[in-house]
Write a structure and sequence with these properties.
With 227 residues, the chain is α+β, with helices and mostly antiparallel strands. The chain has a single domain (12-226), classed as Protein of unknown function DUF1054 (BirA Bifunctional Protein, domain 2). Helix content is 41%, strand content 14%. The chain is built from seven helices and six strands. It has helices spanning 12-19, 23-28, 30-52, 126-137, 139-154, 179-182, 203-226, and strands spanning 65-66, 85-91, 104-111, 115-121, 158-160, 187-190. The protein has a six-stranded antiparallel beta sheet, with helices on one face. The radius of gyration is 19 Å and the shape is globular. The relative contact order is 0.17.
């Protein structure tokens, strides 16, 4: 079945889980999670994937993935067992790489405190980061990236990075016109705010398809810059 909507626009389940983040509460409300959030997220990503494939003529997309609700608490001070959001993504298919180490066409997140879509390359491994910097430094490819980001900014997309350096990496000109991009360890864009009232409607599919198509040139630039 296709996406029909999440359980509610206010994410009541996730707000309640944030207050009662314990196994007994979750098990008592597991059906709410599965039917209201997990299954709809799978359906949403599947529908969006079908609608965006042609927007990526230069690369193949991988199978959509939904993240588990369970937190990895092995090395965390916070031992709360569950995440307080649902999230999933559509990766670019790249042989020999983990799906979390490649550019993604879409990441969608909805939870107790926020809801958003994004695209890009969240965390680059050493080889990908080296290639990214060389592409940013190059006049032709670097200027192409600047134009893509400028166009997206006009449409309300916000460029971001998971981590970055305070200084331009060694071997690159500190005064380079794209110095700020050279400092990044990844590059993503956050979509404009999700319109109110569509989380519980199939209309969310079209909104995400349109938003993802708009950011497709950036994703394809990153695919070839880091390959």
């Amino acid at each position: 079945m296709g996406f029909e909507g999440f359980a509610d626009d206010g994410a009541k389940f996730w707000k309640a889980l944030a207050k009662h983040n314990e196994r007994s509460w979750f098990l008592a409300h597991k059906t709410e999670y599965e039917e209201g959030w997990n299954a709809p997220m799978k359906a949403l990503l599947a529908d969006v994937a079908k609608g965006i494939d042609r927007a990526f003529p230069r690369c193949d997309l991988g199978e959509p993935r939904v993240f588990r609700v369970f937190r990895d608490v092995r090395f965390a001070k916070d031992k709360s067992p569950y995440k307080t959001h649902a999230a999933g993504f559509i990766p670019v298919a790249r042989t020999g790489k983990k799906t979390t180490d490649v550019p993604f066409a879409l990441y969608f997140h909805i939870g107790a405190t926020e809801r958003f879509g994004a695209a890009g390359h969240y965390i680059m491994d050493t080889d990908s980061l080296s290639r990214f910097r060389l592409a940013v430094e190059d006049d032709a490819r670097g200027m192409e990236l600047e134009k893509i980001l400028a166009k997206l900014a006009k449409r309300g997309y916000v460029a971001d990075a998971h981590e970055g350096f305070k200084r331009v990496p060694k071997g690159f000109d500190p005064e380079h016109p794209r110095a700020e991009l050279l400092k990044r360890k990844g590059l993503t864009v956050r979509f404009p705010d999700v319109p109110k009232g569509i989380l519980t409607s199939p209309r969310l599919v079209k909104w995400l398809i349109d938003a993802t198509k708009m950011s497709a040139p950036l994703v394809e630039w990153l695919v070839y810059a880091t390959a």
